[in-house]
Specification:
single chain, 145 residues, mainly alpha, 2 domains
Length: 145
């Protein structure tokens, strides 16, 4: 259970503190008042969403406004609104990744085959392409010469 980002244990702790501070009689009054305001807030939200939905329908926009006050409804609405942009971004990202992989494979293929002195390409050796160049004591490799 998660209400406004507050979990079940937090709500229980808040209720116990309220019971200690306010007492059972005032706590019931506060709960009744909070319930009335919550109902008014939900009614106002529903009226506002109906008005916005009516205006969107009149404008010809194909978008459904959420009737409830949950995070999931807002996330769903935002995902639907951003779908055309996110689809284009996803396609461009996939094209970019595909091009990078092709270029990487091409570069690796060029690095693995080096021309010899007689003009023919040599086959790559097992250790080629690895960092076997020594940089003195900085590389951590000992120089055997």
């Amino acid at each position: 259970m998660n209400i406004f980002g507050v979990g079940g244990w937090e709500i229980l702790f808040i209720l116990i503190i309220m019971l200690i501070v306010a007492g059972p009689k005032r706590m019931l009054e506060w709960a009744y008042i909070a319930g009335r305001y919550t109902a008014k807030l939900r009614e106002m939200w529903a009226q506002m969403m109906d008005t916005i939905q009516h205006e969107l329908d009149d404008a010809g926009v194909d978008m459904k406004m959420p009737k409830d006050l949950s995070k999931d409804s807002f996330k769903r609405m935002a995902d639907e609104a951003m779908r055309p942009i996110s689809d284009e971004y996803r396609k461009a990202s996939e094209d970019y990744e595909r091009e990078v992989k092709q270029l990487d494979a091409t570069v690796r293929g060029v690095n693995n085959t080096k021309p010899s002195s007689n003009g023919k390409e040599n086959q790559p050796t097992p250790n080629e392409g690895k960092d076997d160049v020594g940089f003195g004591t900085w590389s951590g490799k000992q120089d055997d010469s």
